[in-house]
Write a structure and sequence with these properties.
- With about 400 residues, this protein is α/β, with parallel strands linked by helices.
- The protein contains 14 helices and 14 strands.
- The chain folds into two domains: about 170 residues, Rossmann fold; about 220 residues, Rossmann fold, CATH 3.40.50.
- α2 packs across α4, α8 packs across α14 and α10 crosses α12.
């Protein structure tokens, strides 16, 4: 029988958690009740708030005496981050479910994020319909809008609670039968405007016996890939779409953070890198463009996405940044430069075609790359040329075989 870790503030929402506990048990599941509140639980808990606090080196009595909500939230969230993966490793539960507002969500989700990908995680939250990147990070937490506040049982909240409980039951009781995968895993990055390239490279790699996981270079995709590289998932990395640096440096909405392009270099994972979609900075609808971008070369990718062409000066900055990251490598890294364009709309006759801008990027990279660590190869091809894609795949296979 599978077990659900039911984690929440049992000092303020005991009635709601007791209701969900009964739903889970009626669905044939066991429960592990974890108290994440500051004060005494109003229903029995298997893991007390004192246990949670102690996992991060805090004393619950001291937390109570401070009467500082921010301090308490920080202490208990750190405790959850420490205790939840430990309980999972001890086979105490199979999935985790929680309900809460901003405070409850902030306390429990660090523990959820610390669990392996694939472990069922559901957070029913009052903030689930907004920007949840702070809570989810690079994990696979399912954020479920609570619609009404998690405060009492009513005709709407009981329906939401029941749906979440049965969703968890469904995930735990349905086993996907998979054959053991013995194929080496490759991470690849793709954007809409580099899709032909990555599709062709993926097809080639799969024919050669690899499995390719493609990450959409939308900020979250890059962060997730970096986290999985750090966790040792991949035999090689085909990072052909490094556009997230444009947004990181110049205020776009799809930034992947300052540690993008580091993991493979630091871990010594063979990688082939290119400059896919470095011709664009991403924004939302056209009315969201910053004032300093409004007179630039603009392309409306779709009604909700507006692109701004990177300038010569910006491409020099991009070249310096990418070179800095790639120079962290201990060999096993190749940089491929597509001399005839870096995206679908950076080609002759297309709206972002910019020979001068691209040359600024290429020349800066060549000037700053440490060629003792990174091999630079220039190809007189467009990035979406099938020959470019196949060359990238062939080089990556060779790097993997060498290592």
């Amino acid at each position: 029988m599978k077990t659900v870790a039911l984690a929440g503030t049992l000092d303020s929402k005991a009635r709601e958690y007791a209701y969900v506990k009964n739903l889970l048990e009626d669905a044939g599941l066991k429960t592990l009740i974890i108290h994440t509140g500051v004060f005494e639980a109003e229903i029995p808990a298997d893991i007390s708030n004192a246990d949670v606090a102690a996992a991060a080196g805090y004393d619950i009595e001291e937390i109570i005496q401070k009467k500082d909500r921010a301090y308490a939230t920080q202490a208990l969230s750190k405790g959850m981050e420490a205790i939840i993966p430990r309980l999972y490793e001890e086979y105490r539960f199979d999935g985790i479910l929680s309900f809460g507002g901003t405070g409850g969500t902030s306390i429990v989700t660090p523990g959820m994020r610390a669990l392996p990908i694939g472990v069922p995680k559901i957070m029913v939250s009052t903030v689930a319909s907004g920007d949840v990147s702070f809570y989810v990070g690079t994990s696979d937490i399912m954020m479920y809008p609570s619609i009404v506040d998690v405060s009492g049982l009513n005709s709407l909240s009981t329906k939401i609670f029941a749906n979440a409980a049965h969703a968890m039951a469904g995930m735990l009781n349905y086993e996907v039968k998979q054959k053991a995968n013995k194929k080496p895993l490759i991470a690849a990055t793709m954007f809409g405007v580099t899709t032909p390239c990555v599709d062709a490279a993926r097809e080639y790699l799969e024919k050669k016996g690899f499995e390719v996981l493609v990450f959409h270079a939308t900020g979250t995709g890059g962060k997730t890939m970096e986290a999985l590289i750090n966790s040792g998932f991949f035999a090689g990395v085909l990072d052909l779409t490094t556009t997230e640096w444009c947004d990181e440096l110049f205020g776009g909405v799809l930034a992947a953070g300052e540690h993008r392009s580091e993991a493979a270099a630091i871990k010594g994972i063979p990688q082939v890198v290119s400059v896919g979609a470095m011709d664009m900075i991403n924004f939302g609808t056209i009315d969201t463009l910053p004032e300093n971008m409004q007179n630039r070369n603009i392309y409306r990718h779709n009604p909700s996405v507006t692109l701004v062409r990177t300038t010569t000066e910006e491409n020099r900055a991009l070249g310096e940044k990418l070179a800095q990251k790639l120079n962290m490598a201990h060999k096993k890294t190749v940089l491929l430069l597509p001399l005839k364009g870096v995206s679908m709309i950076d080609a002759e006759g297309q709206p972002f075609y910019g020979k001068e801008e691209d040359e600024a990027l290429f020349e800066t990279l060549k000037r700053h790359i440490d060629t003792q660590k990174v091999k630079v190869i220039e190809l007189p091809l467009h990035i979406n040329d099938k020959k470019f894609a196949q060359k990238a795949a062939e080089i990556l296979i060779a790097l993997i075989e060498e290592s």
